[in-house]
Amino acid sequence: MGEESAKVKRILIWEWDSAVRELNYTWLMGEGYKCTKPTGLSEALALIEENNYDLVISCWRGHGGNQVIAKAKNCDIPVLCYSGESKVDIPIKDIDYIAKPCGRLGFIEAVRKMLDSIPDEGVV
Fold this sequence. Notes:
Strand content: 15-25%
Number of strands: 5
Radius of gyration: 14 Å
Order of helices and strands: HEHEHEHEEH
Mean pLDDT: 84
């Protein structure tokens, strides 16, 4: 694998609303990220277990968002919670949060900020 391909950040997007999922996927792919967008909970949980994602972006309520977040945290993958819920209503500590609805620029900035805060592998 070349040096350039090693720099591409891998993101799993878990969103119950297919329109929002597709929009987030399109925005992030347009920024050069490699994204996965599972449509089923079992698939999402298996992908998190099997892959070394740099970030998991997940909705919170319904459709297993809390399970996806817990699985990512258990696998030491940073999580950005993307939800219409108030941040104080999310009972998992140490996750970043962005409120829905959010425009493209705000969403991309939140993802960039989150990824920039994660040390690169091999850097001490």
